[in-house]
């Protein structure tokens, strides 16, 4: 396989590395940058003027994204260290989409990245969403409650069957894409999407509803509020599924890389 550009002192992240939404090592230098795509990534320290380029042209970028999609630019964007911040700029033709549906276009000024986790998306051919995960280690004083010697408390994730996870990723894809005002898909929309991506499987509205209801009931019995009609009251609308998807994302049971299930 053709190698990506290396950075002196940087550390490569392999393909299949766990999502950066699950956190990074606690003993890193503040300002350390992690960048990850489905094909791998890199970890680098916060040296002034350092620049990490990402895009389609694997031999000429530090992190390859959208390698087989010609709509993605060969140099799609860059992360540059200036002062106490990492700044993201768009070098390509397509806009980069940040959380909150904010678009960063080629002609826009670079914007600073907040500490912590930031997913970036680029929409390619046939609506394919290419994900680039970024994590910036917080500077001293940015953490509200610093406990240097304490062990990290992992989030409590919920066990899902493969069918449950696939159904929930389809149902909650707008949330995983960090759209500004997301709503769950309807049962009909979810079933139609599942039949498109898994035509060999027998997906119906009732099957999707049954799988999701089982997960809601299981989490409700486990102490998660806002997942039953009795708690929420009428009119229900999308509230129960909205609360379910938010819970699964907040404890990292569902993370943006799970969108890859939509393209398997």
Can you tell me about this structure?
The protein has 264 residues and is of the alpha+beta class. It has 2 domains: 11-136, Sandwich (Tumour Suppressor Smad4); 162-263, no CATH class. 22% of the residues lie in helices and 21% in strands. It has 6 helices and 12 strands. The protein has helices at residues 162-171, 173-176, 187-197, 205-221, 229-232, 239-250, and strands at residues 11-13, 33-37, 40-44, 51-55, 63-64, 77-82, 85-90, 96-98, 102-104, 111-112, 116-123, 129-136. Strands 1-3-2-12-11 form a 5-stranded antiparallel beta sheet, with no helix packed on it. Helix 1 (162-171) packs across helix 3 (187-197) and helix 3 (187-197) crosses helix 4. The radius of gyration is 20 Å and the shape is globular. The two termini are 21 Å apart.
In short:
The protein has 264 residues and is an alpha+beta fold. It contains six helices and twelve strands. The strands form three sheets. The chain has a five-stranded antiparallel beta sheet with strand order 1-3-2-12-11, with no helix packed on it. A five-stranded mixed beta sheet has the order 5-4-6-7-10, with no helix packed on it.
């Amino acid at each position: 396989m053709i190698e990506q550009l290396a950075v002196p002192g940087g550390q490569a992240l392999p393909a299949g590395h766990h999502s950066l939404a699950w956190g990074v090592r606690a003993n890193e230098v503040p300002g350390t940058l992690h960048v990850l795509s489905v094909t791998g990534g890199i970890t680098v320290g916060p040296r002034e003027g350092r620049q990490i380029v990402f895009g389609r042209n694997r031999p000429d970028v530090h992190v390859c994204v959208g390698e087989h999609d010609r709509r993605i630019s060969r140099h799609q964007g860059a992360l540059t260290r200036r002062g106490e911040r990492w700044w993201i700029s768009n070098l390509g033709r397509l806009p980069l989409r940040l959380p909150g549906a904010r678009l960063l276009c080629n002609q826009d000024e670079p914007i600073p990245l907040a500490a912590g986790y930031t997913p970036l998306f680029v929409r390619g051919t046939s609506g394919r969403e290419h994900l680039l995960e970024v994590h910036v280690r917080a500077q001293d004083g940015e953490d509200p409650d610093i406990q240097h010697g304490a062990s990290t408390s992992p989030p409590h994730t919920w066990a899902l069957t493969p069918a449950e996870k696939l159904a929930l990723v389809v149902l909650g894809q707008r949330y995983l894409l960090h759209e500004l005002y997301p709503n769950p898909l309807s049962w009909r929309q979810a079933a139609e999407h599942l039949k498109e991506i898994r035509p060999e499987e027998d997906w119906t509205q009732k099957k999707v509803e049954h799988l999701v209801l089982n997960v809601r009931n299981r989490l409700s019995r486990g102490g998660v509020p806002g997942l039953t009609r009795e708690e929420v009251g009428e009119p229900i609308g999308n509230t129960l599924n909205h609360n379910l998807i938010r819970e699964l994302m907040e404890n990292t049971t569902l993370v943006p890389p799970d969108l890859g299930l939509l393209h398997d």
